[in-house]
Design a protein that fits this description.
Number of helices: 7
Radius of gyration: 21 Å
Distance between the termini: 13 Å
Structural class: alpha/beta
Strand content: 25-35%
Largest sheet: 7 strands, mixed
Order of helices and strands: EHEHEEEEEHEHEHEHEEEEEEEH
Number of strands: 17
Length: about 300
């Protein structure tokens, strides 16, 4: 019987591990199929407090993991397959084997949706990203493009006008799906140029392996063209990593965990932190704060029930 299992090793999971380990809970931390989460695909993090010159995303994750290990957190390269709430404890199926725990923190994050084109894994962080807030400042006075048509795409396009010389908003339809206020805000900005009825079909790179342009196709005429941009911001949504918990924990229509009281889910002893439950901020620092809160809530829960 474990005291506490933490699912995920992004900023939320690792911060929870640090706090839980310092509270002598000796948490078991499951790294999953994407150890380190989305920060491991970021070359430079400039907006995490305390790093004047920024820090590489993978280095930040390694530092946090080492900090958690120093206090007694245990790590396993394991994946959660299933979950069952029991009477007085929780059962987690880890790599086809059931393990019991008194408390569980789910910080498994959310995976950004990409277009499924060749080379996306290699280009992530090299001219391809899903976070304008994270990476927009790296592309000052150069043209960029945003792919998508919803509120996220409109918001990212508007945000990027602070830095880029031009923002092309590429959408497969002839009007945005975004709310009217968000669409009007983006389209009224002189730096934003919509590219209607168009899909992105290929990323074109320079000698250094960085994005230099994209190949486009008009879905009505079939005409193909090239558009020179230095970065592609994909804004077609995220998929929360909550599959093992479907039908057992309350989720919204998109699969994000619903928190009822601070970080507590609808099942006693199960807490959620970070992008797995956050549909608004999705930042490293907010994930870390939620991980801290989840660990404190879990500690209080365990203390009360013991």
């Amino acid at each position: 019987m474990e005291k506490l299992i933490i699912v995920g090793t992004g900023c939320a999971g690792l911060t929870a591990a640090i706090y839980a380990a310092r509270a002598n809970l000796s948490p078991l931390v499951l790294e999953g199929r994407e150890p380190g989460g989305q920060l491991t695909t970021t070359t430079l993090v400039e907006n995490f407090p305390g790093f004047v010159d920024g820090i590489d995303g993978p280095q930040l994750i390694m530092n946090m993991k080492a900090q958690a290990e120093r206090f007694g957190a245990r790590f396993a390269y394991s994946h959660v397959d299933d979950f069952e709430p029991k009477d007085g404890y929780l059962s987690v199926k880890i790599d086809d084997e059931w393990t019991h725990t008194k408390a569980l923190i789910i910080a498994s994050g959310a995976s950004a949706r990409y277009l499924g084109l060749p080379g996306e894994k290699q280009l992530t962080g090299h001219g391809l990203t899903s976070c304008a807030t994270c990476d927009g400042a790296f592309y000052r006075n150069v043209p960029v493009c945003v792919v998508g048509g919803g509120d996220s795409a409109a918001e990212e396009a508007t945000f990027l006008t602070r830095f880029a010389s031009k923002v092309y908003l590429i959408h497969r339809r002839n009007e945005l799906r975004a709310s009217k206020i968000m669409a009007d805000r983006a389209l009224s900005n002189p730096k934003v140029e919509p590219v209607w009825n168009t899909v992105l079909t290929e990323y074109l790179t320079d000698d250094k392996g960085e994005v230099r342009a994209v190949k486009l196709k008009n879905v009505e005429t079939g005409a193909e063209s090239e558009l020179e941009v230095k970065c592609v911001f994909v804004a077609i949504g995220h998929t929360p990593n909550t599959a093992p918990f479907k039908g057992k924990l309350d989720m919204d229509e998109n699969g994000y965990l619903i928190r009822r009281n601070r970080t507590q889910t609808n099942v006693p002893g199960v807490f959620a932190a970070g992008d797995v439950a956050d549909t608004i901020y999705r930042q490293a620092v907010t994930a870390a704060g939620q991980g801290c809160a989840a660990a404190l809530d879990a500690e209080k829960y365990l203390s009360h029930h013991e």
